[in-house]
Design brief:
Keywords: DNA-binding, Transcription, Transcription regulation. By secondary structure, the protein is an alpha+beta fold. The chain has two domains: about 150 residues, Jelly Rolls; about 70 residues, Arc Repressor Mutant, subunit A, CATH 1.10.10. The chain contains ten helices and ten strands. The N and C termini lie close together (about 10 Å). The relative contact order is 0.16.
Length: about 240
């Protein structure tokens, strides 16, 4: 019973029809996801896919010189490792735990086998992948055309949508890596938001105290992404 409660904390697992879920249960593993854990390295083989329940995973594109920028974020609404069922066995992005928590992992081959059945899993994962592509595309546009202040607001809102609380534990270095900017830029942007009364920030802890204010301050990118996820994915988790 406890296992099913935990499984239902991930949207995709929670809405799976019982026959499909029953086939996965023997292979689903409950895993801890500590802050900073690397699930995949760029170019690495995908042996497992991950379904976060309380953790948040950042997908980063890493350049040859080691610098990186976030291209997407995955939490309890999704799955990490879409390349495994889209025809590839590796990924060009690095997957790093952005916010510590828990999740489930499943052998990539087991997921691919279910995907190839062309049933409910295929349609659900394709809709999720379309939403993820929207997030990646909008992130690229946002990073090019909007201010760091707006980007940070968007990033905080997307993260909060995938958390039960209103507090994130993040270092400035990790945030800078996510946004592809210098640490000093993150400090300046965070101080602006704190001065405006939207967040409190100290020792790697960011607490959002005015979510409505963040939404008013961010760019249109957040709403574009949220509407697409709401349109494509189920709005209720099975119980």
């Amino acid at each position: 019973m406890k296992l099913h409660v935990e499984i239902n904390k991930n949207l995709l697992l929670g809405v799976l029809p019982q026959p499909e879920l029953a086939r996965w249960l023997p292979d689903l593993e409950d895993v801890d996801m500590p802050l900073g854990q690397v699930l995949y390295e760029s170019g690495g083989r995908i042996d497992y896919v991950y379904f976060p329940t309380s953790a948040i995973i950042s997908l980063l594109y890493v350049l040859e010189n080691g610098s990186s920028a976030e291209i997407a974020v995955v939490g309890n609404e999704g799955i990490v490792g879409v390349s495994s069922f889209m025809g590839g066995e590796s990924t060009l992005s690095r997957a790093v735990v952005q916010s510590a928590g828990h999740g489930f992992r499943l052998r990539a081959q087991a997921l691919k086998n279910e995907f190839d059945r062309s049933g409910a899993v295929l349609h659900l994962l394709l809709r999720y992948t379309q939403a993820l592509i929207t997030l990646m595309s909008q992130t690229a546009v946002c990073n090019r055309h909007h201010s760091l202040d707006q980007q940070l607001c968007r990033w905080l809102l997307l993260s909060l949508d995938r958390l039960q609380g209103c507090e994130l534990i993040m270092t400035q270095e990790l945030i800078a890596s996510m946004l592809g900017v210098r640490r000093e830029g993150v400090t300046e942007a965070a101080l602006k938001l704190q001065k405006a009364g939207l967040i409190t920030y100290a020792r790697g802890r960011i607490k959002v105290i005015d979510r409505k204010g963040l939404k008013q301050r961010t760019c249109e990118c957040y709403e574009v992404v949220k509407k697409e996820y709401d349109r494509l994915l189920p709005d209720k988790i099975a119980v």
